[in-house]
Amino acid sequence: MPADFTLNDATTLPALGFGLYKVPAELTEQVIADGVAAGYRLVDGAEFYGNEEEVGRALKHVDRDALRVTSKFWGEESQSRDAVLRSFDASEKALDTHIDIYMIHWPRPARNQYVDVWRTLIELRDAGRVTTIGVSNFTEAHVQRLIDETGVTPAVNQVESHPWLPQHDLRAFHAAHGIVTQAWSPLGRGRVLQDPTLAAIAERLDVTVAQVIIRWHLQLGSALIPKSTHPERLRQNNDVDGFELSEEDMSTIARLETGQRTGTHPDDRQ
């Protein structure tokens, strides 16, 4: 099982969790049961995913104390303090448990309100209502502004990252500021799995292409949240301790970088 990261708030983050984006509500409880059975200790959810009530029901049937649970503030309609508090209250009620990690889902920079949203997350943390606060889809400039204007550095920045989009500069910025990089879409929404270079590495190592990519993330020093609704794939994705990518493998994968995104650029979501 991959190791934990120690965060800048002195808590820990499992390096490998599983995401619930686009997991249908009717499958969510079973996916969580399968994920916990496969050894995961981080459940990554969000207000926007529309399945938090099902997450809450599932958490009643597993060892909740062994897990860290993430939710995120969507903020499409409003980014006011009251809107953040209402959203947090709604997620807390739906999950029916303490939220371990709460993030700003998108900065929505054209609105110029994300610093105020961050101040509200700090307020929630200081009140003991959430343990760890972080951000998602923030660029270096967005994060730097949070630090400069509030003095509080996010513990985690969850961003799109995969072999086509490794985000090396952002990772270096995070490392310099004690922020853990957590990759969403770590398999490029499944598209990167078709790459023949990765397939050749996987065949030589007798592992799946997904396992190669997950191992690549971990060797870069990144946390990640791959998603699957299939029990066997969940198990395989968490079984990456039995092999290591060589320096040559890492160099080969580095040549796959194109900068191609499978999702929205942070500056484009408003």
UniProtKB/TrEMBL annotation:
Domain of life: Bacteria
Comp. bias (Acidic residues): 241-250
Residue intervals of the NADP-dependent oxidoreductase domain: 22-256
Record key words, sorted: NADP, Oxidoreductase
Region (Disordered), start-end ranges: 233-270
Database matches in InterPro entries: AKR, Aldo/ket_reductase_CS, NADP_OxRdtase_dom
Alphabetized PANTHER family for the sequence: 2,5-DIKETO-D-GLUCONIC ACID REDUCTASE, NADP-DEPENDENT OXIDOREDUCTASE DOMAIN-CONTAINING PROTEIN
Protein name, per record: Aldo/keto reductase
Annotated organism of origin: Tessaracoccus palaemonis
